[in-house]
Specification:
The chain has 373 residues and is mostly beta strands. It has one helix and 24 strands. The chain has a domain of 150 residues: Galactose-binding domain-like (Jelly Rolls). The N terminus is likely disordered.
Length: 373
Amino acid sequence: MIWMMAITAPAQELEAFAYEPAGSLVDGSGEGRDDEMIFLPGMRFPLEAAPAYLNSQVYGHGGSEGPAGGQCHENNYSYPWRDNYCESRRFSMPLCPAGTGHQGQDIRPATCDRDQHWAVATVAGTIARIGSFSVSLISDDGTQHRYLHLEPSSLEVAVGDQVARGERLGRVSNAFFGSDGERVPTTTHLHYDVQMNLDGRNVFVPPYASLVSAYQSLLMSPESRCDPVPRRGRTIEETEGCVEWFGPPRFWRKEARETASDGSLFWTNAHAGASPANFARYGLQLQARGTYTVEVFVGEGRNRATQVAYTVRHGGEEDVVVVDQSAAEGWTRLGAFDFAEGGDQWVQISDNTGEEGRDLHLTADALRLTRGR
């Protein structure tokens, strides 16, 4: 099965995003891990801009085990994506069916030009190591995020630097070095892998499902810029880069509505499950601490769910406010909350409302913060 996006992607993204399931490797390249677990919810996609293409560097065109054609072959720069975690390698990999395999995921940027496309921090953290062609970022929980094949001369960070989520690290290249220190070019791509502690041991975990979710969020928020919230407050539209979208992309739908805050909104189906299948998170970076009134815009037409939960994270605390969207119209107040200066604060809307129904929808539109109560 191939998932297809059912929304309008950025103007420069002319093709519909599609991806093969996790663990579906190129035939003859090994046995993948069938694992849809999102190990890194809320991560930022590791390339600054779309489009990007996940596929094998070894078994793709121009690879040592791939079909004829150079690395710039058009098939390498087209959808659908393919997982290549656990692809045949000699590295010890406890989570792979063979016990050995590829440690992460290869990502081609928009073009095969080297030293042109920026790699960025997927999470906030500390630069722990810089190798001859690699950068290792450690998040606060000890998870290691590793970037390979960055152009050494392009690095924007040094060991010990504290970086923010989305901050530039370096440009993607074909950098690779042999044991003698001589540069041995590989294909132009970013190798991204994640090592975390599971059941008391540090292992490389499959990043594919997390990357799918992060890319979906990047495409659904075509304005990659996310401006901070000034002292007086501001309105955040659902198309801004501050908003992240999670869950299977076919279940978030964008729709033009005259009743929406900016003429459009996203909607999805409500369900009675214990955990959200689809949710949207509005990231907040405040320039000043203080009390802010939080409101959400509820557009008419798809607002049918009656128990929509909004989680507000503010100043290290979380509050849940339940809204009957079917009775709401326009700007709807969630309450006044004390926010801290800086980030790690957000408002999240989730689809697990506790209700079931074929046409029971909920909408995600603009969010507004206003200083004071």
